[in-house]
Amino acid sequence: MRRARGGLLYLAVAWSLSQVPAGAQSAGIPRTRDGKPDLSGIWQAFGTANHNLLSHSASTGVPAGLGVVEGDEIPYRPEALAKKQENFANRATQDTESKCYLPGVPRITYMPFPFQIIQMPEVTTILYEYVHAIRYIHTNGSPHPAGPIEWWMGDSRGRWEGDTLVVDVVRFNADTWFDRTGNFHSDALHVVERYSLMDVDHINYEVTIEDPKVFTRPWKMRMVLYRHREPNFQLLDYDCYAFDWEKYYPYPGL
Predict the structure, then answer these.
(1) Which of 38, 176, 181, 249 is surrounded by the most beta carbons within 10 Å?
(2) Which pairs with CB-CB distance under 8 Å and at least 24 residues apart come from 143-150?
(3) 140, burial (CB in 10 Å: exposed 0-12, middle 13-18, buried 19+)
(4) Using an 8 Å Cβ cutoff, are 179 and 51 in contact?
(5) Contact 95/195 with Cβ under 8 angstroms?
(6) pLDDT 10s digit of each residue in the chain, 254 long?
(7) How far apart, in whole angstroms, are the C-alpha atoms of residue 144 and residue 149?
């Protein structure tokens, strides 16, 4: 896994450097040779959205945070709100993060781990530090595969609207949550992400959520993604196991 990822990163960096024309930085944001904003780099969301998408006070192990949802309200259908409350009561064991499942989209974006965007003309690849997840956003005009299909991370198809990368994501399963408080969705989830460079080091990340089985209307969340500028910064290993790994697979020196 490490060797394959390293090779991919080497090729992607080489390609990216060859695509950025001289003076592109002077235009305010980096651009690829075809004029698209260049989102390539290592990014991270900083905040408390993974704990709770809505505004919340501090509690044991959880810092206070301002909400990222437009209007600070998630429009649940009455029957779905009862399920959300049940999820909250059982969050310590039922949160999909505690089971080490892939967290889904958009949650993987605002988990407390960095991710690397590798942008090419027909596909944008996102490598996540969390459990080595990899996501492909196809920007070649191809449609979503015919369903029904249920994937942890859905199927992503992107297009450019001006300087914004718009990503349409469908084909989800119903097993992931939006945060640790039990905000959830069904297999009818439809996500539209919008990535817009604000400047060289900041992306405005906006997400529209639609799921008629769970919500009465579409709703939005918004946050800023920050580029890592630390010298030699890179994605590291983060493995997650829903059992005591060291007990069954002891490793000398741990």
Answers:
(1) 176
(2) 144/168, 144/170, 144/171, 145/171, 147/171, 148/187, 150/174, 150/187
(3) exposed
(4) yes
(5) no
(6) 444 455 444 444 444 444 444 333 435 899 999 999 999 999 999 999 999 999 999 999 899 999 999 999 999 999 999 999 999 999 999 998 988 999 999 999 999 999 999 999 999 999 999 999 999 999 999 999 998 999 999 999 999 999 999 999 999 999 999 999 999 999 999 999 999 999 999 999 999 999 999 999 999 999 999 999 999 999 999 988 766 656 666 766 55
(7) 10
**pLDDT score of 240:** 87
Query: For 45, which DSSP code?
Result: E
Distance separating alpha carbons of residues 158 and 58, to the nearest angstrom: 37
Distance CA 154, CA 176 (A): 11
What is the token pair recorded at 36? 């698209």
The whole-angstrom separation of Cα 16 and Cα 226 is 19
Domain hosting 214: range is: 2-248
Residue 131 domain-assigned (yes or no): yes
Cβ-in-10-Å burial (0-12, 13-18, 19+) of 78 comes to exposed
Task: Please report, as a single letter, which amino acid is at residue 144.
Answer: H
How many domains is the chain built from? 1
- Is-contact 47 68, C-beta < 8 A? yes
In whole angstroms, what is the distance from residue 49 CA to residue 84 CA? 16
Q: Please indicate, yes or no, if residue 97 is contained in any of the structural domains.
A: yes
Measured in residues, the chain has a length of 254
Radius of gyration, alpha carbons of the chain: 19
Count the neighbouring beta carbons within 10 Å of the beta carbon of residue 246.
Answer: 9
254 belongs to a structural domain:
no
- Using CB atoms within 10 Å of the CB of residue 210, give its burial: 0 to 12 exposed, 13 to 18 middle, 19+ buried: middle
